[in-house]
Amino acid sequence: MADRLTQLQDAVNSVSFLKNEANYFFIAFIEYAQLFAALIARTAKDIDVLIDSLPSEESTATLQAANLYRLEEENHEAAARLEEVVCRGDLLLEKIQSALADIAQSQLKTRSGTRSQPLPE
Prior knowledge:
By secondary structure, the chain is mostly helical. Helix content is 86%, strand content 0%. It has 3 helices and no strands. The chain has helices spanning 2-28, 33-53, 61-116. The radius of gyration is 34 Å and the shape is elongated. Belongs to the Mediator complex subunit 21 family. It is found in: Nucleus.
């Protein structure tokens, strides 16, 4: 959370800096007004995102524990689904390997059968 607060403070400071510098630059370079307005708007949007990402007052230890429990349950369900998919994949792999072995055997039999026959003259 300290990182988010630091980011929030930096964003607020940058808006303040941009606002203060805009007054100076506005006098000297009027064409930079749009650039400063865009920078201030983007930084304000970043501030809103950072504020929204901060934990709310409702975020108590009990709620966090409940969320962690729910996430753990979802993780177990996903792990079970993954195991099922891996098992099905292993079965499919065995079938494919068996089919490839049958094809290879058939090709060997076909080749050996054509060699044993005398060539036409």
